[in-house]
Amino acid sequence: DTGVSQDPRHKITKRGQNVTFRCDPISEHNRLYWYRQTLGQGPEFLTYFQNEAQLEKSRLLSDRFSAERPKGSFSTLEIQRTEQGDSAMYLCASGPGQGETQYFGPGTRLLVL
Amino acid sequence: TQLLEQSPQFLSIQEGENLTVYCNSSSVFSSLQWYRQEPGEGPVLLVTVVTGGEVKKLKRLTFQFGDARKDSSLHITAAQPGDTGLYLCAGERAGNNRKLIWGLGTSLAVNP
Question: Is there a contact between B42 and A56 if contact means CB atoms under 8 Å apart?
Answer without folding.
Answer: no
